[in-house]
């Protein structure tokens, strides 16, 4: 009997051994502030709540907005993720393989924190998954800290607050829920920040396009979506006035057309969203452009009123038009 217990115990220790390897926590391609901040915070939450060894990674450099939040929090940017092959991974802010790092097919996804539709990820083993239809991953994370009764540091509070204000466009987006507002108010208190002033400053940084090349404007929040057996990409830039982009539209259209040149992408689109008026101009190029033509107000531009969110408005509309 004792021998039996020993055998069971050594099996348990073996399992624990597996868990003691470094877990990589990573957000989606072309990382936005949520992907950067939530990866950092999730790595801390996993250390505190699960006792794991973790490292936060990002699939790209922080945007100006993310850099602002990191600076406010006094936290360094996550290291760049080269490959996750052979690693145990937690995904934050996505479950679509098209937004995953290299080597994902040879990695073990052991956890997910996300607020998007469930993507095409399939796992070999049971995983821990926290997927809520809220405005931001960090809102879920805030609730996970509360659930596990773990104290939230000022740095983590600033990171989560920044991610929530960014993803919900200062609570204006239709993706914003009551849970996001409650989390942000609590986090602002912990961070010792005035919520309104912080949001205002963040929106100024978010809509600042100074010094950004045409290619980087297309890339900064570009997401690739599978449609039947093909792919389309949809980016988004947020501005405070269309005057900021009037002289860039032609170059942006050329850049989008260039993205479709190889034939791999059937459509390349960019939502140019005025967050002051909630008007989005959807620029589009590629083989499937003809499907959008009847909706266009100008050549290769669809104007969409009351449209701030790609996830809830832009992309669902495109899916319908493309018959996806
Ligand atoms: Mn997000």
UniProtKB/TrEMBL annotation:
- Membrane-spanning residues where? none
Cofactor(s) needed for function: Mn(2+)
Cite the DHHA2 domain residue spans from the record: 199-322
Can the keyword Metal-binding be found in this entry's annotation? Answer: yes
Could you tell me what this protein is called? Answer: inorganic diphosphatase
Keyword Phosphoprotein in record: no
- GO terms, molecular function: inorganic diphosphate phosphatase activity; metal ion binding
SUPFAM superfamilies cross-referenced by the UniProt entry: DHH phosphoesterases
Catalysed reaction equations from the record: diphosphate + H2O = 2 phosphate + H(+)
> Could you tell me the EC number(s) of this protein?
3.6.1.1
Print the keywords alphabetically: Hydrolase, Manganese, Metal-binding
């Amino acid at each position: 009997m004792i021998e039996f217990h020993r055998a069971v115990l050594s099996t348990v220790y073996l399992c624990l051994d597996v868990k003691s390897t470094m877990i990589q926590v990573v957000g989606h391609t072309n990382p936005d502030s949520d992907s950067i901040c939530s990866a950092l915070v999730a790595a801390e939450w996993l250390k505190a709540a699960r006792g794991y060894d973790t490292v936060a990674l990002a699939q790209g450099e922080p945007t100006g907005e993310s850099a602002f939040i990191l600076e406010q929090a006094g936290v360094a940017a996550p290291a760049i993720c080269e490959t996750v092959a052979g690693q145990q991974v937690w995904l934050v802010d996505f479950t679509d393989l098209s937004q995953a790092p290299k080597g994902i097919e040879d990695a073990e996804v052991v956890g997910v924190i996300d607020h998007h539709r469930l993507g095409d990820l399939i796992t070999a083993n049971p995983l821990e998954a926290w997927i809520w239809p809220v405005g931001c991953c960090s809102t879920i994370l805030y609730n996970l800290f509360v659930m596990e009764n773990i104290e939230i540091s000022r740095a983590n509070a600033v990171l989560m607050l920044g991610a929530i204000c960014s993803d919900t466009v200062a609570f204006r987006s239709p993706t914003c829920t009551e849970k996001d507002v409650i989390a942000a108010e609590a986090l602002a208190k912990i961070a010792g920040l005035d919520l309104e002033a912080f949001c205002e400053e963040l929106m100024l940084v978010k809509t600042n396009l100074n010094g950004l090349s045409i290619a980087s404007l297309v890339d900064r929040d570009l997401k690739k979506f599978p449609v039947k057996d093909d792919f389309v990409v949809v980016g988004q830039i947020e501005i405070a006035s269309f005057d900021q982009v009037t002289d860039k539209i032609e170059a942006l259209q050329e850049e989008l057309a260039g993205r479709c040149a190889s034939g791999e992408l059937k459509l390349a689109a960019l939502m140019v969203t005025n967050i002051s008026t909630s008007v989005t101009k959807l620029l589009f190029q590629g083989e499937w452009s003809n499907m959008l033509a009847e909706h266009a107000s100008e050549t290769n531009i669809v104007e969409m009123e009351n449209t701030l969110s790609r996830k809830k408005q832009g992309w669902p509309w495109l899916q319908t038009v493309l018959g996806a």
